[in-house]
Amino acid sequence: MIGNSLPEYVFIRASIFALRLVAPASVLFVAACAFAGAFLLSPLLASYAIAEALFYALIYVPRKYRLQHPPTYRPPPMSRAEREALFRKCCADLDLLQDTSYPKGWFLPKRTGLEFKLRRQDVEGWLLWALFVAREAQEEWREELDTYIEIVEKILGEPLDDGPGESDVRSMRLTYDPVKIKHRPLIWYAIVCVVDTITSLKLFFLGFKHYSSRKWFEAFPPRPLLSVVSNKVDISPDILLQYWYRPHRSATKLPIIFLHGIGIGLHPYVPFIRDLVSQDPDVGILLIEFLPISMHMTAHPVPPAPLVASALNTILEALAIPRVVLAAHSYGTFVATCILHDSGSASARAISPSDPDVPVPLVPEHRHPLLAKLAHTMLIDPIPLLLHLPPAAHNFLYREPRRAAEWQLWYFASTDPDVARTLGRAFFWSEGATWAEDVQKWMRVEGAGEGEGEGEGEGEENGGDCAQSGVNGTAVVDNNNSPQAEARRKRGRGRHVAVVLAGNDQIIPAEQIRRYLTGLPDASARWVGRGWADWQLPRRRGTRGMRGDAGTASVNENENGDGNGNGNGNGNGNGNGSPDVVEIQEGRGVGGGDLEVLFYPGLDHATVFDTWERRKAVLEVLGRFVRDT
């Protein structure tokens, strides 16, 4: 991300204006040439103008229409109990909202600056999208919807207007709203092709090999270099999932798998990847490419999470990798948490284009052996945390840009055709939305796969059937018999999770996420919760005080504590993103992993990768993760 200075504002606005001017200027130039009956200025310029005009008329315009088609994938339908539990979670932690009430932030006035009051029909339509993945209410849902409406009225402190009349608002419903895209000229895709080729060369020099299941011309712009040197692999042709791999050569460390975010592919991450290679030359690195969010034109958006999980498991098995450290950034964190969620027995389904009510089998059950291969996890600029709150959706897809960085995000990410299609037709918030309890579950269940279950009583620190005790005395049973899982059971430790946040993130509510995870009102550059996976999370979170049993714990012993214990996180770091303050909280320490939160005050989304000073703490954490086998 660029900054918000006046020169940067002028630069980004001029760049966007120039790129958007190419198509109309080309059409006018071609028309002038046709009127004159000759090529004006030069045949080369005229040929380029013809190419741009044809690209706009024959590719962009028809594609803009096709991208409005409804989603071809629907997540597993939830039961009433699941919907009620999800809605209760959404209505908790509302103290984290600063500027508006919930769910009012999910609604936008039809006219800018208009003060509005929510109507019953507005909230009902939003609830149908959010919880039922439906446009119209079925009769059996009526009582349930009435219950949700009553809860919303209590939160707002006033009844919803149920009378006739036109609504003054529209709700943000990503998969139902129009896909808003802006044209990109051929010259832009030529730039993307050059940057992609340079990135490929840099990765080759770092020792990576490229693997692909598709031919190079099935994405645009083409990848001519990779069409020659890429290794073909056997992955489902329905999944446009390519990857880079640097072989793993260590017997005592874990390899890393990295899922990138929206942008120009892996290019912004090359310095970070180079640092990883320098730090641990013997550690393997697997880089997954999501071309639909990499400024490429593709036939399909990012595949559904169950298909991505199957593809990743196939890749890891083909590479003979039993366990990995998972690192993800931005949109990659959404994919990561979709994979980490174990949704049980319900199967997802496709939607028949001819009959939306006819289920078409498409994806397997989202209960996958891939979960047993994932060790520690790092989430950088995480999208899924507090995803039920409106900031992430609003800031990426609905905000009117004003500052330089917002204009950059708007044109080069939000309105990119394939990015907008992925977010507007393949992004189901309930699949990836993540709460603290979910994070704790991942951290406690190390090595659990198909045999995972639950039982009563306390876990045994020295192994046995119960890996460790969970919240409220619930023991998580680990039936995985791998040597690695057995070793971890004997040591009585689970997965560690690190979360990296930028204080001035323009997309996600980073400060609210920090307070949600740490329970502390003041920020520290580094916060560590020892044994956080086993902490007792209070039912209602005010300032999110935690409760623990350890004698050295800097937590409030009161169940409704204010979280201000001995380490109340009043350090603010050094301001340049290199954390120098460590805040340690202790949990019960009976087997769960640690939670680490790195907070970079003053940084924007993705800027943690910009300099080595900022990357240093991230690299240090990953270095510890790969050594903790």
TrEMBL record:
<feature type="transmembrane region" description="Helical">
    <location>
        <begin position="45"/>
        <end position="61"/>
    </location>
</feature>
<feature type="compositionally biased region" description="Acidic residues">
    <location>
        <begin position="449"/>
        <end position="463"/>
    </location>
</feature>
<dbReference type="InterPro" id="IPR029058">
    <property type="entry name" value="AB_hydrolase_fold"/>
</dbReference>
<keyword id="KW-0812">Transmembrane</keyword>
<feature type="region of interest" description="Disordered">
    <location>
        <begin position="449"/>
        <end position="494"/>
    </location>
</feature>
<feature type="compositionally biased region" description="Polar residues">
    <location>
        <begin position="469"/>
        <end position="484"/>
    </location>
</feature>
<feature type="transmembrane region" description="Helical">
    <location>
        <begin position="186"/>
        <end position="208"/>
    </location>
</feature>
<feature type="region of interest" description="Disordered">
    <location>
        <begin position="541"/>
        <end position="586"/>
    </location>
</feature>
<feature type="compositionally biased region" description="Gly residues">
    <location>
        <begin position="562"/>
        <end position="576"/>
    </location>
</feature>
<keyword id="KW-0472">Membrane</keyword>
<feature type="transmembrane region" description="Helical">
    <location>
        <begin position="21"/>
        <end position="39"/>
    </location>
</feature>
<protein>
    <recommendedName>
        <fullName>AB hydrolase-1 domain-containing protein</fullName>
    </recommendedName>
</protein>
<keyword id="KW-1133">Transmembrane helix</keyword>
